[in-house]
Design brief:
heterodimer, A: 315 residues, alpha+beta, CBS-domain, Heat Shock Protein 90, 2 domains, three-stranded antiparallel beta sheet, rod-shaped, B: alpha/beta, Udp-n-acetylmuramoylalanyl-d-glutamate--2,6- Diaminopimelate Ligase, Chain: A, domain 1, five-stranded mixed beta sheet, globular
C-alpha cells in the first residue's frame, strides 16, 4: 500500500485561500504590451489577471508578451492578446483541486475568486509549494513545542506542590489485558521526559502491582500513579481478599496463586519483592485481612525527595 | 552481537517483528517465571522461555528486552504475535530445549548477570 504522507493530507486539508497570493497586480484591457512588460519586470511576475470595472475579464502572461515581441507588436493592447474567460478557482476550494488544474491545463497561474466571482488573489505553483512547506514547518514546530511542554510541565505550572495523577481500573482475572496499565504508565513517563532507568523501575513495580490485583482479587482494583517533580508514587488498592500475613507474603517464592496461573508463569512469589527492589519506599497494608493497599515511591530527584519524605517507610 | 546473528547461528524461526532483529543483545536470561524475568533480566537482554502467551510481550516490553526465544517447539498464540508486532518485540522459536539454547548462546559470547540479591 502506498504510504500517505502528511504532504498528501495537507493538499486535501488546506484551502486555496491559505496559500494564494492576496496582493494581485492587475492590468486593464487597455494596457499596452510595452506597459505590460514594465509591470511584469517591476513586480518580477510572469502574468497577471486582466480586470475591467472591477470584473475579471482575462489573463495575460509573459508568453503572450514574448509572442507580441517576436511579432514586433508591442504597441497593441492587452485586450488583443489575453486569454478570455479564464479558468478560475475559488478561494474556498481545496489545494488538491488547484494541483489537479495545474496538471490538467498546463497554465502557470489561476486567478482566485470569492463566491461573488470577485477577484481575491492569484495562485501559482510556487504559491502551492511555499504554502505546503510553511504549513509543514509550522506543524513541525508545534510538535516540538508540544514535546517540549510535556517534559517541562512541572516548570511551567507553578504551585506549592504539583502532581499529575494517572488512574487505572484493573479487572480481576483478565489476563488478556494484563500489563496494559503498566504499559500506559511507561508511555506517560517517557512522554514526560523521565529518565529511562526510572521509567523501567516504575514500569516493573506497576506491572507487579497490576498482576497481583489480576491474579488474587475477585473484584479487581485500582492503580493510581502520582507523578511529582521529585518522586513517583504508585498506589494499588483493592477490596479483597487481603493478605493475612504480610511478612510471609514478602518471602521470596511464597505464593498463593492457583496452579493454572502458575503454569502461565505468574504467581512466582516474587512480585512484592520486585516492587520493593524497584522502589525507594514501600508500604503495604491489609487491615483485618480484607482489603489491601500498597504505596510505593520512586525518587526522581533523590536528594529533594528524601529531604521531603515523611520518614515512615517500609524499607 | 545482534539478534539477527543469533537467529542465524541457532537457526531460529522468526515469528514476530523481523524489522527489530538488528537490536544489539547485551546479555541473556532464562526463566519461565515472569516476575523473575522482571527482577533479573537487564535492558537489552534476550529472554529464553517456554511461555508463549501474550503476557510475555508485556514483560519484555516493560523490561526493555531485546527479544524472546521460545523453546521446545512451543508456538506463540496469534494474540502473542499480534502484541509483539505492535510493540516491536521480536519473537523467535526453536525445537531446541532451553538448556541447549542457553548453552549455544554462551558459546556465542552472550552471558547473563549473576546478581544473587533479591
Amino acid at each position: 500500500m502506498p504510504q500517505i504522507t502528511r504532504l498528501h493530507e495537507l493538499v486535501y486539508e488546506l484551502k486555496i485561500a491559505e496559500v494564494m497570493t492576496q496582493e494581485v497586480v492587475t492590468v486593464t484591457p487597455q494596457t499596452s504590451m510595452s506597459e505590460l512588460r514594465k509591470i511584469l519586470q517591476e513586480h518580477r511576475i510572469s502574468g497577471t489577471p486582466v480586470v475591467e470595472n472591477g470584473e475579471l475579464v482575462g489573463v495575460i502572461s509573459i508568453e503572450d508578451l514574448i509572442k507580441a515581441l517576436a511579432a514586433g507588436e508591442m504597441g497593441v493592447t492587452v485586450d488583443e492578446r489575453m486569454t478570455r474567460e479564464p479558468v478560475v478557482l475559488c478561494a474556498d476550494d481545496r489545494v488538491v483541486l488547484a494541483v489537479d488544474h495545474f496538471t490538467r491545463y498546463g497554465f502557470g497561474r489561476f486567478p482566485i475568486v470569492d463566491e461573488d466571482a470577485k477577484l481575491v488573489g492569484i495562485l501559482t505553483q510556487g504559491d502551492v509549494t511555499r504554502g505546503l512547506l510553511k504549513k509543514l514547518e509550522f506543524e513541525y514546530h508545534e510538535d516540538e513545542v508540544r514535546r517540549y511542554r510535556a517534559s517541562h510541565i512541572f516548570e511551567d505550572v507553578v504551585s506549592d506542590r504539583t502532581s499529575i495523577f494517572l488512574h487505572y481500573d484493573v479487572v480481576a482475572h483478565d489476563f488478556d489485558y494484563a500489563g496494559e496499565a503498566s504499559s500506559k504508565v511507561k508511555r506517560a513517563l517517557n512522554h514526560l521526559g523521565v529518565s529511562s532507568q526510572i521509567v523501567r523501575r516504575a514500569a516493573i513495580a506497576t506491572y507487579e502491582a497490576e498482576m497481583n490485583i489480576i491474579i488474587h482479587t475477585d473484584e479487581g482494583g485500582e492503580i493510581t500513579v502520582e507523578i511529582q517533580p521529585e518522586r513517583i508514587i504508585m498506589r494499588a488498592t483493592d477490596t479483597g481478599p487481603g493478605i493475612p500475613d504480610i511478612e510471609q507474603a514478602m518471602q521470596p517464592g511464597f505464593s498463593t496463586a492457583p496452579e493454572w496461573i502458575r503454569e502461565m508463569g505468574f504467581g512466582a512469589g516474587m512480585g512484592l519483592l520486585n516492587i520493593r527492589r524497584c522502589t525507594d519506599e514501600m508500604r503495604l497494608e491489609s487491615p483485618l485481612g480484607t482489603r489491601t493497599s500498597l504505596e510505593a515511591v520512586i525518587y526522581v530527584d533523590r536528594r529533594r525527595a528524601r529531604a521531603e519524605s515523611q520518614g515512615a517507610c517500609g524499607k | 552481537m545482534t539478534l539477527e546473528e543469533i537467529c542465524r547461528q541457532l537457526q531460529l524461526d522468526v515469528q514476530a517483528a523481523p524489522a527489530k532483529l538488528g537490536t544489539q543483545v547485551t546479555g541473556g536470561y532464562a526463566s519461565d517465571l515472569l516476575s523473575c524475568v522482571m527482577a533479573k533480566a537487564q535492558a537489552g537482554y534476550v529472554w529464553v522461555t517456554l511461555q508463549a502467551h501474550p503476557n510475555i510481550v508485556a514483560v519484555a516490553s516493560l523490561a526493555n528486552l531485546a527479544g524472546i526465544i521460545i523453546t521446545e517447539g512451543m508456538k506463540p498464540d496469534p494474540a502473542t504475535i499480534e502484541k509483539a508486532e505492535e510493540q516491536g518485540i521480536p519473537i523467535l522459536t526453536t525445537l531446541l530445549t532451553t538448556f541447549t539454547v542457553v548453552g549455544r548462546l554462551f558459546e556465542l559470547g552472550v552471558s547473563g548477570v549473576d546478581d544473587v540479591g533479591t
